[in-house]
Amino acid sequence: MRHHPHRRGLATPEEIDVTIASLDEPEAVPPADHTQAASRLSWLALEDGLPRIPGWRTE
To answer: Beta strand pairing status for 16-18 and 6-8?
Structure first.
């Protein structure tokens, strides 16, 4: 899969996913959750207490 800085959500077409590192000021947009958490890299520790969504959001 080719990297895209933004794309339409697969589960919800009205959602746009944006790669946070592509923003000029990423600190201004803190995450609300971790989407696709089930496919995270094995060495990535999610220890921030944010909700983990295993796949795509369905709401």
So the answer is: antiparallel
